[in-house]
Amino acid sequence: MKRIFQFIFLFCLMANNLSAQEKKAYTLEDVIPGGSNYFNLVPQNMPGLQWWGDRCIQTLKDEILQVNVKNGKKTPLLALSEINHALRACGEDAELLTSLSGASMPWPEKKAVLIQQHSQILTYDAELKKISRIARISEKDAANFDFCKENGFLAYTVGKSLFVAQQGDFHATTSPVCMGNKEDGDRNIVYGQAVHRNEFGISKGTFWSPKGNYLAFYRMDQSMVTDYPQVNTTTRIATLVPDTYPMAGMTSHLVTVGVYDVNSGKTIYLQAGDPTDRYFTNISWSPDEKHVYVIELNRDQNHAQLVSYSATTGEKEKVWYEEKHTRYVEPQHPITFLPWDHSKFIYWSQRDGFHHLYLMDTEATANGEWKKGKDTESQYCELLKTTPLTEGEWLVQDILGFNESKKEIIIGSTEISPLQTNVFSLNVKNGKRTLIGKKDGTHRAKLSASGKFVIDQFTSNSVPREISIFPTSGKTANGPLLFAANDPLVDEYNMPEITLGTIKAADGKTDLYYRLIKPVNFDPNKKYPAIIYVYGGPHAQLIHNNRFYDARGWDLYMAQLGFVMLTVDSRGSDNRGVEFENRTFRQLGVEEMKDQVQGARFLQSLPYVNADKIGVHGWSFGGFMTTNLMLSYPDIFKVGVAGGPVIDWQFYEVMYGERYMDTPQSNPEGYKGSNLREKAGNLKGRLLIIHGGMDPTCVPQHSYTFLRACIEAGSHPDFFIYPEDGHNMIGRDRVHLHQHITRYFLDFLK
Hints:
Elements: H1 2-22, H2 28-31, E1 49-52, E2 55-59, E3 63-67, E4 74-79, H3 80-88, E5 112-117, E6 120-125, E7 130-136, E8 142-147, E9 153-158, E10 161-166, E11 177-179, E12 189-191, E13 206-208, E14 214-221, E15 227-232, E16 239-244, E17 254-261, E18 267-269, E19 278-285, E20 291-298, E21 303-310, E22 316-325, E23 336-338, E24 341-349, E25 356-365, E26 370-372, E27 378-382, E28 384-388, E29 396-403, E30 408-413, E31 422-427, E32 433-436, E33 442-447, E34 453-459, E35 465-471, E36 481-485, H4 488-492, E37 498-504, E38 511-517, E39 528-534, H5 553-560, E40 564-568, H6 578-582, H7 590-605, E41 609-619, H8 621-632, E42 639-643, H9 654-661, H10 668-673, E43 686-692, H11 701-713, E44 718-722, H12 732-748
Parallel strand pairs: 39-40, 39-41, 41-42, 42-43, 43-44
Antiparallel strand pairs: 1-2, 2-3, 3-4, 5-6, 6-7, 8-9, 9-10, 10-11, 12-14, 13-14, 14-17, 15-16, 17-18, 19-20, 20-21, 21-22, 22-27, 23-24, 24-25, 25-28, 26-27, 29-30, 30-31, 31-32, 33-34, 34-35, 35-36, 37-38, 38-40
């Protein structure tokens, strides 16, 4: 019997070894976006899932399906051929559709489909089987489309101008209303686009009122901003392509907010006063369309006010709430009115140290006294009654919508872990939160019109992807599973071991999360070189409880080549609260580097790591960190690759740069301490700088001036530029980029 057990054990061991040997090695073409085999090896998805009221639908290329919310069964709803038949009936100039994958059904009670393709946006009435309304866009290069389902109007931009067109009869010809110069536009005046360089949560420039009677929009005057001289080298003689780029401490653009009246055709502007050195963010509307709300900040970004204006006259009405912080206030979300009580709205604030929701009552005034927040550096002034809806050392990340019948808000939050997003229903009356879906992993959800169901897309380190429908009551632990994906990379290829853990920050008390990847076919008796992949800056987090704990394909590839790969989310990164993030204020790079050095010390303590062969790589803020670590700790970090690095924060854009560093004029020591040109002579190891030739985010001047400083200091970095590329390489350039980075580490660290 003993021999039988020994035989079985040896057989299983041999089978496991054989299985590991049979699995393939991956290439950069397999694991890098833009690679020829990349999309074949990512977990598959179930595309086109969305809500039609409380009915789940799936839009595919040739048809639209209805998905039963109780059992997941699919039934045909509409076919592409049916809609094209209706288009043919409209005449020879009809543009037939090629796909329904981008269709939506935004009217919960109408069987009507909204489809945009190229130069037309149409509504198909599935009851009458005809095209009911259509807008045809004659202008070339139209972008930033914003359709209003309440009135059938479409806002869009062409160049710097804003257009508003109305859906009408197929054969009707309508001339869109234009804000700006219709012919060619003034490049210095921009209408209907995101402003303030997309900071403060700003992602668009048009905002329809709830009933569609008005359109609020941004107007940005950049005539006073210095142009940055980007150069296009593809022309016979290189061509100047200026990029309007306000740098820290320099003159910034002027922003105003306009309101277009759909019925009268008139436009007014909010009377906010002189816009110089002010930011206007998070535009929203009152449910009755009488008031426009804006969160306004001073240039120092340490004082925010919630202000309302008359939608018809533009007159300033009142300040509803104010907030100050000794470092910075950072509003990211507009106010949201309760759908069942239009006298109350939700305001987002970090005044207690974490992003939480506060219910404000427009009919109940407060004394207007300034109070201290739980974050001792914050102050707030309530001019109306305020009730905290969420509290604790975690943060709200999203409001998905409402379940009006139960008076609940559906939110995404980090309550379970800062490494993941979970979905909860939040009772407005008693503050009770109920988990929706599984406790583990990261969840992205779409809420049905009534708020009774969510389409939940779930992933974790152990689950490639699951898509389910859950009731928001939380009573059903497992709703119908619509889709479960395999992970072909894990199934077919020899993978490294990936572990998650914590180390102490340089302050000796704060826990920092790390992700460690051991080499493929790890041998504990070997000594391996190690690379730290770093970011470290605000609004970014590199470790989540999802596929591979967020490790990138390049990290896995380097593990296959025999490198230990480590990532640490240091202080200054996202989703850990205000104190965790703003410890870096006015001295970017200092505290973050100390924490990354803790990561390097952790690597050096591992018996299988070669302590003399530690490298570092990062992009953007991570490029700044990489360069800084190589120059500040040259005895630890021997090889670095810095992509799109910030070298001198006075060259960075005004909104982001001044929020975290103040101005060069008010913080000269901070700017000097983070100016990497000052450390150019410290370089001992091998450092490769990579930059996009027309980077509009971190302009090439950063790298050029660093090279000059190194020449003068007698140090020798390497340099590679991607002509005409922006801040990140995409497509085949991205594969080439990672080939180049890999070669550098193989040449100098392996």
